[in-house]
Amino acid sequence: MASGRRYAGKVALVTGGARGIGAGIVRAFVESGAQVVFCDKNESGGRTLEQELPGTIFFCCDVTQEEDMRRLLSETVQRFGRLDCVVNNAGSHPPPQWPEETSAQGFRQLLELNLLGTYTLTKLALPHLRKTQGNVINISSLVGTIGQSRAVPYVATKGAVTAMTKALALDESQYGVRVNCISPGNIWTPLWEELAASTPQPMATVHEGILAQPLGRMGRPADVAAAAVFLAAEAHFCTGVELLVTGGAELGYGCKASRAVTVEDPGIPS
Ligand SMILES: NC(=O)c1ccc[n+]([C@@H]2O[C@H](COP(=O)([O-])OP(=O)(O)OC[C@H]3O[C@@H](n4cnc5c(N)ncnc54)[C@H](O)[C@@H]3O)[C@@H](O)[C@H]2O)c1
């Protein structure tokens, strides 16, 4: 089937679609022939993309506000009469923080965005998705499984997104609704750029980020977006899957002991 027809006649809803990975997903679903509705709390970015991609509909809203999510869904279904796919992409990663620099309040706020935002929209969308035997795609993270230094709250929220994906996949299978997640590795987005800028040596941080992948580059939003369209349009027998889009970052051994660790000599004879 031509790529422009892969998801024709379907309606996809994408959160955090104004920039980065979300914007890439909006573009890819438009190219697949779907009707795309997207939201973001960044109004100017959202309006700019909406104008660039005729036929898309943008709503300025915050995924942590349940009322916003109710309005987003009801307007989508009223306008298009159906909903086939929800992509929970809106999320954030705080600048690097040692455990003692974190706070319960900061952790709670991140849970509200990265985990409960996903939970709330999905729960509200289920009655519509059951009618179309649609699917949910959660944008989680590789680090939710392998961990990441100086990111305890972020890692915990993403680990929970991956776990929630699997639990929901089990419960929704009886309705024919598939629930999957994508775990990106290092994807070059405005968020990654901002995080690098918050480090003492931004260029060195970016270089380290590139070298983390055996493929020798960071991913692009389009790489994640291609995986999302695949899960929605073609992966009919996949549910509860965590699809890694990482350039192989999780493979093999690396230099993982910090300089502060006392290195143990295994006693190799000289
Ligand atoms: N970039 C990476 O390397 C990477 C890796 C793994 C996972 N991820 C995940 O991918 C997703 C997108 O990341 P990105 O790098 O494109 O980030 P980004 O900051 O570049 O884009 C995120 C978008 O989400 C929007 N957003 C944030 N909070 C919102 C809210 N409360 N309501 C509505 N919209 C909101 C932002 O305005 C922004 O437009 C996030 O969930 C992130 O955790 C990113």
In short:
With 270 residues, this protein is α/β, with parallel strands linked by helices. It contains nine helices and seven strands; from the N terminus they run βαβαβαβαβααβαααβ. A seven-stranded parallel β-sheet has the order 3-2-1-4-5-6-7, sandwiched between helices.
Structural write-up:
Strands 3-2-1-4-5-6-7 form a seven-stranded parallel β-sheet, sandwiched between helices. The radius of gyration is 19 Å and the shape is globular. The chain has one domain: Rossmann fold (3-Layer(aba) Sandwich). Helix 1 packs across helix 9, helix 3 (66-80) packs parallel to helix 4 (104-132) and helix 7 (190-197) crosses helix 8. The longest helix is centred in the middle third of the chain and has 29 residues, at 104-132. The protein is of the alpha/beta class. It contains nine helices and seven strands; from the N terminus they run βαβαβαβαβααβαααβ. It binds nicotinamide-adenine-dinucleotide. The site of nicotinamide-adenine-dinucleotide has 30 residues, from helix 1, strand 2 and helix 7.
